Amino acid sequence: VMSMLGWYEGDEPQPDPALPEEWNQAEWDNFTAQVKEYGIAWSDLASWTTRDLDNAIAEATVGKGGSISAFRAPLLRRSLLRHVLVKPPKRRASQEDPRNYADLQQIVKQCLMDNLQEFDKIRAELVAQRRPKYLIFVRHGQSMANCDKAVWCTTPDNRIELTNYGCAQARETGRRIKSLLGKTQTTFHVSPFTRTTQTAWEIVQQLDRSLVGPIHMESRIREQEFGNFQTSDIQKEFREIRPQVGRYWYRAANGESGADVYERVGSWWHTLLSMMDNLVEKPEYDSVVIVTHGLTMRLLLMWYFRWSPETFETVWNPENCEMWVLEKDHIGNYKPAPEKGGAPRGKRQLNLKLKDPQGRDLPAIEVEQKIGERMDAAADVLPWVLENRADYDEIPQDAEIVAATAGEITFDWHNVSQGDAVGGKIRSSKAVTLHFKDGSKESKVIQDYIAIPQPRSLHVRETLAALDVAFSSVEAVDFWNGKFSGPLPNHCYTKWHESADGVAESGYITRQATIDEHTVRT
Prior knowledge:
Number of helices: 17
Strand content: 15-25%
Structural class: alpha+beta
Largest sheet: 6 strands, mixed
Helix content: 25-40%
Distance between the termini: 49 Å
Number of strands: 17
Radius of gyration: 32 Å
C-alpha cells in the first residue's frame, strides 16, 4: 500500500497528500474537525502500524454485519492512509507505548463505515475491468476412439490420441481463436489427457507465441473416469443402464459419476475465479482457453450457470473441436456468445476416375466429401467412396470407380444448433407434459430449453411460446414429463389461474400450489 502511494518506511520528508478528488474543501475541513474532536494528533495517527490499522478496522466493524471480508481491509486501510496520515507509518518505539483503540475505531466508523457499500462497488468495478474478456471452452478434436469404439478396450482413456482429421480440426480451431482474440494475451487450461494435450498444441501453433501465456495442465478438468479399460461388456452396460439412471448420476464400475466430476470442476472454478479477481496482481491475459472434454464442458457450465441436474441432462454434448465462448458483460459476469463460437466441419474435393460397364474410360468427375464424425480424413479414399457411393447422386450407378484422389481439407464453421454458417450455440432440449383444459394431455419437446429464463418452471408463458402452444388452452405443465406416479409433487407441477385483476393479462402468472392445506402463491 505504501509503495502504491509513493511513501517510504523511515523518516524521509514527504509531500503533503493531495486533496482527494472526490472530496471538496468543505468535506476535508469537516473530516479534520472530526479528527481534532477526538483529540488525536496527526503525528499520533502517523505512528500506527499496518497491523494496528487492520485490527482497528476489524474491531470497528463488529456489530455492523460481522467482520469485514478479506478484500475490504486493504481498501479501508488505503483510505485511512490516503485521507489521514501525513507521514509514513512507523513501528512503535515499544510494546508498552499506550494506544487507545477506541479513538481510532471512532475515526474508522465516522469516515469509512458509511462507505462500505461504496467500497463493494469499487471492488466490483475493478473485478469487472480486470477479468478476461473471453472464456473459450474447446472440446478435443476427433480421437481414435471417436472413429472406433474398440480402441477403448485396448488403450487407456488418458492415452487415446487424435486422428489426422482431429489434428486438422484443432489447427482450424486455432485459426478461429486467433481471429477472435487478435493481438491480445491468452492463457490455457488443458486436461492432461493425450487427445486434449494434442488439441491444445495444434491450437497454440496457430497463435502468436509471444501472446500465449502459461499453459496449465489441469487434472480437475479431465474426462469422466470410466475405469482403466472400457471392455465391450462395460460399453454394453453403459449403453443399457446409463439412460435409466441419468448421465449425471450414472457411475461406471471403478469410475466416476457425473456428480463426482461436478465437484472437481467446481474446485477448478474457485481457483480460476480467485486468480482472475486478485486485486493485488493484475492478470496478464485477456482471455482463457479451456481445452477439455464434452461431458466436462457441460458440467463446467452447469457449475457456473447454476443449472440443476435436470437442466444438465437437457444439454447436448458438443461436437469435436466445438467452441463455446463466454463473453464478459459490463459488470464482469460471463454470458454465452454463440456468434463467436461454433464447430469446424471439414470437407474436401474428390476427383473420381470412372469406367463404363464395357470398360471404357468416362470423363472424370469431382464430388464434395463432407467428413463425418466417425471417419478419419486420412483413411484410404477409394474404399470409402465405394462404400458410400449411394450418397452421391453425381456418380452414375452403372459406372465403375477405379480411382479416387482427395484434395486439401477445408472447413466451414457452423452453428451446430441450427446448421447454418457461423456460431456455437449451446444446444438443449427437454420433454414436458402439457395438461390441457379439455382434460387431455400431450408430451412435447422444448428446443433450446436453457434459453428460457431461470427458474424455468415459473416461466410458463415462455415455455408455451417455445412450443407454439396457446397459453389459454393449457391448465398445467409437468416439467418432469410423467416420471412421477400418482399425484405430482408441487415443485414439478406448475398450475396457474388467470386472476380477475388482470395480472395474467399484463404478462404475469399466478402460480398456485397446495402445501399442507395452505395455499401459497408465488
